[in-house]
TrEMBL record:
Its EC number is 2.4.1.-. It holds the Pfam family Glyco_transf_22. The keyword Zinc does not apply. GO terms for biological process: GPI anchor biosynthetic process. It comes from Podospora appendiculata. This is Mannosyltransferase. Pathway: Glycolipid biosynthesis; glycosylphosphatidylinositol-anchor biosynthesis. Belongs to the glycosyltransferase 22 family. PIGB subfamily. Residues 1-24 are annotated as: Disordered. The keyword DNA-binding does not apply.
Length: 681
């Protein structure tokens, strides 16, 4: 995805926009190619700098897939197996549902940068800080490329001399969703970049009119190379997210059938042969790359797209993570993606599907095809029960392009008629005159406020708490700051060695995957435990066992008849009694005469949302508390604000860290200080 793409034919050299925005198109003054190249390079440089700042500003938690479907497997690529690193691989990776191409990208970046920092013998805490920030910086490059190709494709559709491409650029830059999500390491974020880049390189001249150009559309120099690049990028996007194929089904359907399109098809027999040949060659090459990558990662031959289809269709496991109504993408998905630009996106989508005599045939056909791709994906994904906004993220650049003419027409004045070009051939383009300025200022202010709040404050605690734990680990165990291997010596673990492997440093009593994991904890010796939420893989769809299945997090938060939760789970599953009831005192339900012992490790810190404090006090500290024998005395040592609201009652309130008081050197222990010890008090 280089900044200077090979030459490609636009739908029309400098088409006008339809009546709603035609008056806002500059006269056709062709710029020198070197000027255009320099302009493109400048735009890309500015976007790279902007998204780099964007990446560093995003300090909040959105969804766990950002970490568990990208950075956790990437950590194993760079630093070793789960046993060596302490990374958390979810069930999807254990059953090969995901392509290794995406995490391999970050794994390679981890490996290269860590090797460089180790060679330079940099301060370990600084190394951990850089490794935590690295994935966002890498993703910022792809975020900038998504903005760049949105502008380039809009320029090809509406003309380089039009104001409309600049409107598309400003929309993608100022969209709150883009600021919030484009630099996150979701596979959907990379998918969006690959999709808009593939659309830019796509040979849109195939949608032209045969009467205008009777030659083979793929004959011009560079057209086949552009097609190859488009197909390769599209193939990678489909391998990352198989649902991406819906976009290309929509585009190919209209390209080949020309349903609803205007004009006569320019496709020749040789064009179709070339087209099919390149699809087979590029698809096979990308597929081979993916298969080899998966073989290296998983250790055996496998094909993740097939297993993804098997588990999500035949096993119906997607519904385990939630079911949404059929209209979810229409009522919530598109509005969340486009936010304040929603009216213009809807108008653009509607207008693009209808025939407009004011538009040239090539431009009208391109816009119809893009709109049809949007509707195809929305319609198909609306049938699936489990829905998420980010599943339709690749449609956002298309929506920006479709909406650009109408937001341009709404916020800019019609230029004053120019003198004849014969009398003033060198007259410079007239500046853009804005209108509805108050409305525009309010719209931009709303976007900036949304982007700022979501990126800096909403669910910020899950990120900052891991920074606290990691830095405290570095303070307590300065000799354990190595990424070479995880301590495996059981004797040392039981005794509490100076390597940091002898203690359970943190226990997360939060809903499953509420925080990142090894990508932010970093050090293998920083052992942590969290409630899990593996799906019921061994149950049949529609069975009673599946309907009544409760994962570990569900069992912790399951309320009894009195509305209480957690205490029974801690007593029976987290720290179960290791002696029989007959050996216990009457207090524990036994006949007395025995000393109660509990299995399970007591952590140095317990992490949870503030609502569980009553649960912890009831288990550890009340007079008849089941866990009084553990010796835990809770002290709050850290808390972080987690936003003004949360739709999940389990995540409401502040995120808190309690010191259990059973290890020396903690913030809450009487010993205090920074002595390095894993021994219990």
């Amino acid at each position: 995805m280089e900044s200077n793409p090979p030459p490609k034919q636009a739908p029309q050299a400098a088409p006008k926009v339809e009546k709603a925005a035609a008056a806002h198109t500059k006269p056709n003054r062709r710029l020198h190619p070197e000027v255009l190249t320099a302009q493109a390079q400048d735009i890309l440089s500015v976007l790279l700098a902007l998204r780099f700042i964007n990446a560093l500003c995003v300090r909040t938690f959105f969804q766990p897939d950002e970490y568990f479907q990208a950075l956790e497997p990437a950590w194993t690529v760079a630093f070793g197996s789960v046993d060596e690193t302490g990374a958390w691989l979810t069930w999807e990776w254990q059953y090969q549902l995901r392509s290794s191409l995406h995490p391999a990208l970050f794994g390679l970046a981890y490996k290269v940068l860590h090797s460089l920092m180790a060679f330079m013998n940099l301060f370990p805490p600084f190394q951990s800080f850089v490794l935590v920030a690295l994935p966002k910086v890498v993703q910022s490059v792809f975020a900038a490329l998504a903005d760049y190709y949105t502008w380039r494709l809009a320029s090809d559709i509406y003309g380089r001399d039009s104001n409309v491409p600049w409107a598309a650029l400003w929309m993608t830059v100022l969209n709150p969703w883009q600021w919030y999500c484009s630099t996150r390491t979701f596979s959907n974020s990379l998918e969006a970049t690959l999709t808009i880049a593939a659309l830019y390189y796509w040979p849109w001249q195939l949608l032209g009119h045969a009467k205008v150009n009777k030659d083979d559309p793929l004959q011009p120099k560079g057209s086949v190379n552009s097609l190859r690049l488009s197909l390769a990028l599209a193939a990678i996007a489909v391998l990352l997210r198989p649902t991406n194929i819906l976009i290309w089904i929509g585009i190919l359907t209209l390209t080949l059938t020309r349903l609803t399109l205007d004009g006569e098809s320019p496709l020749h027999k040789t064009t179709v042969v070339t087209f099919v040949r390149e699809i087979l060659v590029c698809g096979t090459a990308v597929l081979a790359l993916s298969v080899v990558s998966d073989r290296l990662y998983f250790g055996f031959w496998t094909f993740p797209p097939y297993t993804w289809l098997y588990f999500n269709i035949s096993q119906s496991l997607a519904v385990f993570y939630g079911q949404m109504p059929w209209h979810y993408y229409l009522s919530q998905g598109i509005p969340l993606l486009t936010t304040s630009f929603l009216p213009f996106a809807l108008v653009g989508l509607y207008k693009s599907t209808s025939t407009s005599k004011s538009l040239p045939v090539p431009q009208s056909n391109v816009l119809k095809t893009l709109a049809f791709a949007v509707l195809t994906m929305l319609g198909a994904l609306s049938i699936i029960s489990h829905k998420e906004v980010r599943f339709i993220y690749p449609l956002l650049p298309i929506l920006h392009i479709l909406a650009a003419p109408y937001i341009t027409a709404f916020f800019t004045e019609k230029p004053v008629a120019e003198a004849s070009t014969s009398s003033t051939p060198q007259q410079p383009p007239q500046p853009v005159v804005l209108r509805h300025k108050v409305f525009l200022a309010n719209l931009l202010s709303l976007n900036l406020l949304l982007a700022g709040y979501l990126s800096l404050y909403h669910q910020a605690a899950p990120i900052s708490v891991l920074n606290f734990l990691r830095t405290d680990y570095e303070r307590i165990h300065p000799d354990a700051l190595t990424l070479n291997s995880r301590p495996q010596d059981e004797a040392a673990a039981a005794a509490g060695s100076a390597t940091g492997g002898g203690e359970l440093f943190a226990l997360f009593l939060t809903p499953c995957h509420s925080t990142p994991w090894r990508s932010h904890l970093v050090w293998p010796g920083l052992r942590a435990r969290a409630l899990t939420c593996e799906p019921p893989l061994d149950t049949a769809p529609g069975s009673v066992e599946r309907a009544t299945y409760l994962d570990e997090a569900d069992r912790f938060y399951a309320k009894d008849v009195d509305g209480r939760y957690g205490v029974r789970f801690l007593d029976e599953e987290m720290w179960p009694s290791s002696t029989s009831a007959a050996a216990l005192s009457p207090k524990w339900g036994g006949g007395g005469g025995g000393e109660k012992q509990r299995a399970g490790e007591i952590p140095r810190y317990i992490v949870g949302f503030e609502g569980i404090e009553t649960v912890l006090r009831a288990f550890f500290e009340e007079e008849e508390a089941p866990g009084r024998d553990t010796g835990v005395r809770l002290t709050k040592v850290w808390e972080g604000w987690n936003g003004a609201f949360n739709e999940d009652w389990r995540r409401t309130g502040r995120l808190v860290v309690w010191d259990t008081g059973v290890y020396k050197g903690s913030f809450g222990s009487e010993a205090g200080g920074t002595e390095d010890s894993g021994e219990e008090s």
